[in-house]
Amino acid sequence: MQNTHSRSPGMRALWLLAPGQVISWGTLYYGITFLAQPIQTSTGWSLPGIFGAYSAGLLLAALCAPLAGQLLARHGGRWGLSLGSVLASLSLAGLAAASGPYTFLLAWLLAGVAMALTLYEAAFTALHEFAHTEFRRAMTLLTLVGGFASTVFWPLSYWLEGLWGWRLTLLGYAALHVLVCLPLHRALPRVVPAAAATVVSPADMPWMQMLRSPAYWGLAVAIGMTALLGGTLSAHAGLLLADRAVSPTLIMLSVTLFGPMQVAGRLLDMLLAQRLSVRWSGYVAHLMLPTAMVLLLLAKQAPWLAVLFACLYGASNGVLTIVRGMAPAELLGSANYGVALGWVSAPGLFARALAPAMAAYGLAQWGGSATLLGLTCLGVLGWAAFVFAYRARPATAPLHRVQAKQT
Fold it and tell me: Which segment of the chain is annotated as a signal peptide (predicted)?
């Protein structure tokens, strides 16, 4: 007998969304890692300029996140993600055809708009339309699949660039969005909000009122602080570990553990979902970040602590992806989920785009120990802001879900 979960609208939406997440993250976010150097060698453009264009795209994605959330909430994930797939294809084709730094920059700016409409925040909004009571489980499964994007596309980019060159590789990635992502996104059912859903709870506020909510600002600060920390480690983990006098072998082992421990954290969250609320998952995961930073600080005296740091950081990062997707519904209202997610994710996207440059400046000016102390403080501030967000949520604000009919 077929499992009823596999026939549910939430699970069907999950498997339609999952391949697009691997492709979108792999081509728009991770692809540049192994293509930047060949682009520089082929064109003579500077590496700072190449990565600067990429960062500009990330910054525009942050600016577009609130608007993308409103668009997805108004027209549904089917329409918004399909538009994102088209824009992603056009942007990657534009990168492949770029004849100079300015056209390369313009293509990355278009890619930034596409990221706002295709990455996790957009997929979570679409999934929320269908999953309802299965939302946390479906979101965890989606991030488990999406977590393989770097595993697939880092070696694929390296191999294809050697076989075809970077321009044809990017054209191939553009084709993936049209031939794979677009049909899958178009296959999502249309969702029309029921006219009867007119009762709005105190938590389900219009976006202007939401921005006046203390819970919103607590959550936004928490996401921004953890994104600064995560963006720094993504770019400079090797340098920070080397500053702690960790051996190259132990450095490689530690950074290799980031991905598997993210998956392990998400699996554990899924297993404990019936017993551990999103609130307490968030408390624990946020507290693990500054703890991991302290372990890295102490690794100069005990290098084996670098492995424990990597395990704690990876698991925390994996769980926080789920928490960032679930908390807006609990704190700001389920009916306005897409809008709320767009607004709370914007600070994190800004922070992740700026973190590598800010951390590089900090490392150059103050050294590794001071930078790690600063990251520890960011982690503590993120935990405190998350605690504040839940304490600031009105006790009378129940979750309220707009019922939808599928056509």
Answer: none
Comparing 346-355, 376-385, 390-399, the range with the smallest average pLDDT is 390-399
Sign of the Cα torsion 284, 323, 377, 291 reads positive
For 4-192, CATH number out of 1.20.1250.20, 1.10.8.60, 1.10.3430.10, 3.40.50.2000 equals 1.20.1250.20
**Quick check: helix, strand or coil at residue 13?**
helix
CATH superfamily, with its number, for domain 207-392: MFS general substrate transporter like domains (1.20.1250.20)
Question: What are the residue ranges of CATH 1.20.1250.20 in the chain?
Answer: 4-192, 207-392
Question: Is 344:217 a contact under the CB 8 Å cutoff?
Answer: no
CB of 131 closer than 8 Å to CB of 14: yes
pTM for this one? 0.80
> What's the burial of 403, exposed, middle or buried (CB within 10 Å: 0-12/13-18/19+)?
exposed
Cβ neighbors of 407 (< 8 A, separation 6 or more) are 189, 190, 192
State which amino acid sits at residue 305: L
Q: For 215, phi and psi rounded to 5 degrees?
A: -60, -40
Based on its alpha-carbon atoms, the radius of gyration of the chain, rounded to whole angstroms, reads 21
Q: Are 205 and 213 in contact (CB under 8 A)?
A: yes
For 364, phi then psi, to 5°, come to -70, -35
Strands (E), 25-99: none
Give tens-digit pLDDT for 13-68: 888 999 999 999 999 988 887 898 899 999 999 888 898 899 899 999 989 988 89
Q: Does residue 74 sit in helix, strand or coil?
A: helix
Q: Do 57 and 108 touch, CB atoms closer than 8 A?
A: yes
Q: What angle separates helix 47-75 from helix 337-392, to the nearest 10 degrees?
A: 100
